[in-house]
Amino acid sequence: QVQLVESGGGLVQAGGSLTLSCAASGGTFSSNAMAWFRQAPGKERDFVATVSRSGDSTYYADSVKGRFTISRDNAKNTVNLQMKSLKPEDTAVYYCAAKVVRGSYFTTRLKEYDYWGQGTQVTVSS
Length: 126
Hints:
Largest sheet: 7 strands, mixed
Shape: globular
Number of strands: 11
Low-confidence stretches: none
Helix content: under 10%
Number of helices: 0
Mean pLDDT: 96
C-alpha cells in the first residue's frame, strides 16, 4: 500500500510560480509511474503531468506544456510539480497519483492510477 501526501499549495498571483511536492511512503516508489491531476470546482479531475519510473520520460497536458515541469527523486521518494506563469484557470485541487508499472510505461488515464493523495489547493488570483 502506497501513501501519498501532497504539499506546497497556496494562493499566488497570476504570472507567479509555485512548486508542489508529493511524498510517498509504503511500497517501492521506483516501481510507480507518478502523475499529477487537478480538479476545479464543478469539473472533472483532469490529467496534468506524468513521469516514468526512472524519471527519463515525461508527458504534459497541452494546457500546461511549457509552464509546468514534473520531476521525481527516487532516493527521496518524492515527485514535484514546478508551476510557472500561473493563470487563474490553473486554480484547482491538485492530486498526486501513483501507478505500479513495468518498464517505462506511464499513462494519462485517471482510472489506471492505483493510489491517490488527499490533494492540495492551488488558487491563482487575477
